[in-house]
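Fold this sequence, please.
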Amino acid sequence: MYILDRAAVDMLSEEIQEFLEGIRLEKRNRIRIRFAMEDLLLRVCEHYKESVPCTLELGRRIGRPYISFRYGGEMYNPTTSDNGEDQFSRRLLVDMGFAPVWSRKGNQNHISLWIHEEHRFAALNLPLGVAAGIIIGSLGFLLPQDVRAYIDANVLSQFFYAFLGVLSTFASLSLFLFLSSAVSNLGDIVTYGRYGKKVMNRFIGLSFAAAVTVMVLYLPFFHLTRSGTYSPTETLSELLNLIASILPGNPMSPFIDNDSMQLIFMGVVMGVGLVVMGESARQLRGVLTQSNSLVTFLMESVSRYSPLFIALTVASHIWNSRLSEFYDMWKPVAVYLVLVVGMWLSMLFLTAKKYHVSWKWLLQKLKPAMIISLQTASAGASYGEAENALTHRFGVPKRLTDFALPIGQTMYMPATICAFIATAYFLTEAYHVEVDLTWFIVAAVVCTMRAIALPPIPGSGIGCYAIMLARLEIPYEAIGAAIVLDIFFTFIGRAVDSAMLQMELIHSADSLGILNRKILEKQK
């Protein structure tokens, strides 16, 4: 128990710092959290004008570290944003473990911060799952064939469909909740609403443009089976049927059927409706945003078992002699790497030329966040480094970074879109799925929206691939190959997405007329 005054704030800040030292966090993120909590304590002191009793609690629950303190007095929320940060981006920061939450319980005020630890090299768990699957599959041949067949049919297959069903369900909910909460908060920016709308629309527009461009560039490298002869009338009919199929027959069928197109439609319509309702729908917007956080947390919990799922899937493929589909994986990986690295280098040189800075200097400043994203396979883990580079090196105002960076780390993922499309093309070719113009339109929409609504956690791509395969009429058996491809794509994809986002925010700030070019000029 402390009597909260200036001296007590210093003591509490030191305790928080010692606690954070024992947590796996990037140094810049530890500093950010400490300063955020210290600022809240100082606000409480200034508000009450006199000392108030305060209790600090540091620890872990369900393996997750948290910081919590309680103070008496009248109802007062010191976490109220005053820097132009909107509700949706603040919720994303809460999910990343960078923003505290205030609540009132009884006659006391509570402030809590649940921290996401950064598991360096967490993505290595996925290739380790593949290696374990190869070992299990090889050792399985020591068992009698009937025993191996029984295990495959009654253990591996049951676990496969159960795990995939749970993850697909959460992925469907995540798609709907994320889109509805994101759209509904477009008009809820506190100070810079017009900037928020333009930036988010820019993210979505560039993502769709990237998907269409990539689909065209990939075509020469894959031999896709065309469905019959081309007929303008038939194509128009298919497009009209596609538009009609987007409209759900009832509010539950999209979730039951995991129909991604209908979920996209419902999410956008729900979000637009809440925007129209304005302030009267504020509480409902909060419920949607918090529900999205809950589903993301559940997906994160389920995704911890992804390495086991991968191991058993690979073992099943070995026992059933279905390894042939893995032999040609070099092609989508090679095409993906060439295209994604080329896209990244092109933007690097264009950005350096436009703002008259050295491309080597630009790469050096982008590198810290890229390395963290590469090691953790997580966009949120590199938040501190990306924020520092944007604000202090690239001249992007903090008022833009505060809401655009957390939203962009979830919504702007061009390299991930390239990965989804490369996987879709490869599996469509391998399983001889017939395609037409409608198929390409569906692929562009599904791959883009899944990347936009992809939870920023390792292993979340499995649920996305399950939805994508179902919508593109690719057999479920292809999920094993999709998982292995995702492992290759995840490492480079997160790093490239991090760099592309930082450069895109420079361009966004410039287009809005708020880029501080003096900071960039100092780097010459």
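Confidence is low (pLDDT under 50) at residues 188-192. The radius of gyration is 24 Å.
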